[in-house]
Amino acid sequence: MSRESTLVGRTRARPGAFGFLTDTTLCIGCKACEVACKQWNQLPMDDFGFTGMSYDNTGDLGATTWRHVAFIERVADREGRRPTRLQPFQSNWLMLSDVCKHCVNAGCMEACPTGAIIRTEFDTVVIQQDICNGCGYCVPACPFGVPALSPLDGKAHKCTLCYDRLKDGLEPACSKACPTDAIQFGPVHALMDRAKARVAELRAQGVEAQIYGDEALGGTGGIGGLNAFFILTAPPEVYNLPAAPELPQRRVLPAFLTTALAALALGLATLVTFWRSKEVRHD
Amino acid sequence: MTEIRRWQHRRAPGEPVSAETRDSYYGLPVIHGPHWRWSIVFYFVLGGLAGGSAVLAAAARLVGGHWARPIVRVGRYLAFLAVLPGPLLLIIDLGRPERFHHMLRVVKLRSPMSLGVWGLIGFTATAFLNALQQAAEDGWLGQRNPAAHFLRRLPARILAAASTLPAFFLAGYTGVLLGATAVPLWARNALRLGPLFLCSALSSAAAMLALLVGRGPGNARARHALERVEQVALLGELVLLEAVQRGSGPVVGRPLSNGLEGWAYAGTRLSAGVALGLHIVTKMLPRRLRPPLRLVASLVALGGAFLLRAAMIFGGRRSAEDPAATFAITRRPEDPARQAR
């Protein structure tokens, strides 16, 4: 426990890294971020339709959806407590504007076999559209389910943290549009300090708030932190976020070692078999 | 053109509304699964077959005597022919096939797909050279052709030894590639998939070569040696198949125990067991019954290699769709739900 508390609020983000702080306690679920993102990045619409489960008709991040507001109606919490017994907070609706996490060590970037996915001078992770050949390996390599292949152009797409706007000294479209400052843009370390202060403030009010995206929660297992991180008031699974994801590429070397061992064993077995092969009578 | 999204992961009938958000976000997937389908299944099977054939041909060349020449000959040809469709199958699977050469921009040691591209090129080169020398030795390039003469004089043992490393790599890296993703079924079995695919590659290649070297009396010893290797590989495969299912656990291993993928996985185990059993039983039967049973055993082993790749790839796709499986491998150690699993 003591080790974990020292990790809270710590990130391996490089100095000068830029990112998002998405404070779910301030989100009102207006989806202005989704709209602003679509508009600025000229993303085509998703199919119109109702999911029938909540006010969330977007459902998921995708090739043409780089911000996604999740709506969770807390009919009862994990322990089965009904709303009347829950904390009177946010009217029992949880809302989270999900986005690419721009991981400090990004699984998609390490997986990319073409070098199309790069880390920019703002320490954000961007897929270069003139390089990507749509192999799709980044898609399952992301522990958060962010990149996706577009059926429109066959390439992988995800949030660019508005690289073009950053180049011009503007903040990303979603944070610019957010009317409550639930999405804040800035240097990661400054945002992390702000997040820690905010969590302390919320806890003083009796809200079980926590940071998602530091080395204790979300940025675990070699990921080293998320440059786009969140303040949550429920377990991450409630928001469809993994609590302790792992950088998939951590498994590459051990897996190659076991494969090499198996190759050695099978190779030796084959050699010995052929070496000791005896003359057999015709059958 | 836009993909129609289906919302099929709602709560089970009879469950209360609160169940929708109790264990997951309305049952929606946490991660995105891969788009890989049949072309990748076929590539995995053919890559295994090619790698296994090259290994067998090399081993036969290095330690086998004159009796092993059929293995060398057929193995070298098969290794090259089986790998030929590989790049094609991979390229048609790309979202932008005309950009396939972008794979050649970089070498990334932590990306199994990048390594795989270079490994595939290396393997194809060695397999081509080996097959070319074999063709020269078989007189297909003409007896007096100076190029054929040069090829025949190349050191065959060195060529054989040089092909083993890329051959093992080609047969096994696909397991590492699957393991280095966030897909629960593959991530949980990252250490086992490479060895499993290797065993399956060797058993299928041995089965295929045993079928191809022919039934003549001069080939009996070669066929026997191949069948022994096949049995060793099948045994390893059976052990690993069991280890994968047990290691996955009830939640992550769901695609291996029910549904179409579950049937495919059960079929893999059955065919490995049946092929191994047939080889053992055959020895106790009268001689005239042996050849047809051996034929069946080899065909069953080949079918098993195909079922294994299909079960793993489609099973992985299904496990990526299952939020419970993702949460099973990403819960924090102190989470009570993780201990309960």
UniProtKB/TrEMBL annotation, chain A:
Instruction: Give the record's GO CC terms.
Output: cell envelope
Does the keyword RNA-binding feature in the UniProt annotation? no
Keyword set, alphabetical order: 4Fe-4S, Iron, Iron-sulfur, Metal-binding, Repeat
Q: Which cofactor does it need?
A: [4Fe-4S] cluster
For binding [4Fe-4S] cluster 2, which residues are annotated in this chain's numbering?
A: 37, 159, 162, 174
Which GO molecular function, any one, fits this protein according to its record? metal ion binding
Which amino acids does the record list as binding [4Fe-4S] cluster 3?
Answer: 100, 103, 108, 142
- 4Fe-4S ferredoxin-type domain segment(s): 18-48, 91-122, 123-152
- Positions bound to [4Fe-4S] cluster 1: 27, 30, 33, 178
Q: Please list the GO biological process terms of this entry.
A: cellular respiration; formate oxidation
Question: Which PROSITE patterns does UniProt cross-reference here?
Answer: 4FE4S_FER_1, 4FE4S_FER_2
Residues the record lists as binding [4Fe-4S] cluster 4? 112, 132, 135, 138
Keyword Cell inner membrane part of the UniProt annotation: no
Subcellular location(s) of the protein: Cell envelope
Task: Extract the InterPro entries matched here.
Answer: 4Fe4S_Fe-S-bd, 4Fe4S_Fe_S_CS, FDH_Electron_Transfer_Unit, Formate_DH_Fe-S_su
Q: What binding details are noted for the cofactor?
A: Binds 4 [4Fe-4S] clusters per subunit.
Pfam families, per the entry: Fer4_11 (PF13247)
User: Which PANTHER family does this entry report, sorted A to Z?
Assistant: FORMATE DEHYDROGENASE, NITRATE-INDUCIBLE, IRON-SULFUR SUBUNIT
Which protein are we looking at?
Answer: 4Fe-4S dicluster domain-containing protein
Recorded source organism is Thermomicrobium roseum
